[in-house]
Write a structure and sequence with these properties.
By secondary structure, the chain is an alpha/beta fold. It has nine helices and five strands, in the order H-H-H-E-H-H-H-E-H-E-H-E-H-E.
Length: 264
């Protein structure tokens, strides 16, 4: 078989117009790639800034804030309800740690071991309500939330419900301590029952004399009364630091994630 002739590329003459077009194409691709990298870099920087802000919220380092910053609303939505929701994962982690703690206890069996739960964003999820308010990016009108609560349609937080059921099986007395007002009792009880909660020992709501109190003061007073009635608060779960701070907080506290709003 005859050998194929070798082609020496340096002898080929490429038309100048083709060289120019090729160079311009490479320049366009390079510019597009650079723009894409810059956009991706900015997105990464914004994501990291959001995570830093959220950490400040969850550790109670950032206080008395009122709204999720506008530049973080997109990231907040992804955190709360995005694919494989990190919020659900974080809530499950808290429930798992709570369960491990409960299972390590040596219970008295005298009917005096108690656990305190907050309600909103602890047992019940108000995500359907906050979805229309950019997950904390818009202000919440109190009357609008009351109307939502009256519907009694808030779904449960599955991880918290599993913990709740386990505590009942172990014989715990469960106290639900919420910042909701006394006139919301019927709707709250109805919603809790619909969401699969039952057999609590008491549902404690703000009475008229509590309306103007800070959450941390009101809840501390109610927990102290539980202890004065002879119960041992072995665990205390809430989504706000005001659920877990103050006095008579219990043997151990568990903070659920909630970067949507802050209650002092």
């Amino acid at each position: 078989m005859a050998s194929l002739p070798l082609i020496h590329h340096h002898n080929l003459n490429v038309p100048c117009a083709l060289q120019s077009t090729t160079a311009e194409s490479y320049d366009d691709i390079s510019e597009q790639s650079t723009a894409h990298e810059e956009t991706w870099g900015l997105k990464q920087e914004s994501q990291l800034s959001f995570e830093a802000w959220r950490l400040g919220v969850e550790t109670n380092t950032l206080r008395t804030w009122t709204l999720v910053p506008p530049e973080f609303v997109e990231y907040m939505e992804n955190y709360m309800v995005g694919s494989g929701s990190q919020y659900v994962r974080d809530s499950q982690k808290v429930a798992n740690e709570s369960m491990a703690y409960v299972n390590s206890l040596k219970l008295s069996g005298d009917g005096r071991d108690a656990w305190v739960f907050d309600v909103d964003e602890t047992l019940l999820s108000n995500l359907p309500f906050f979805e229309g308010r950019h997950y904390g990016g818009e202000g919440v009108d109190h009357d609008a939330f009351i109307k939502w609560a009256d519907l009694a349609e808030a779904p449960p937080l599955p991880a918290s419900r599993s913990l709740y059921v386990h505590l009942l099986e172990l014989g715990f007395k469960i106290f639900l301590l919420t910042g909701r007002y006394d006139y919301e009792r019927n709707a709250t009880e109805k919603n809790l029952a619909r969401a699969g909660y039952h057999s609590w020992d008491a549902l404690l709501l703000r009475e008229p004399e509590d309306y103007e109190k800070r959450a941390v003061d009101y809840k501390s007073e109610r927990r102290l009364k539980i202890e004065q009635d002879g119960f041992r608060i072995l665990g205390n779960s809430g989504d706000q630091w005001s659920d877990l701070a103050g006095y008579a907080v219990g043997h151990r506290t568990f903070k659920l994630p909630n970067p949507m709003y802050y209650i002092a």
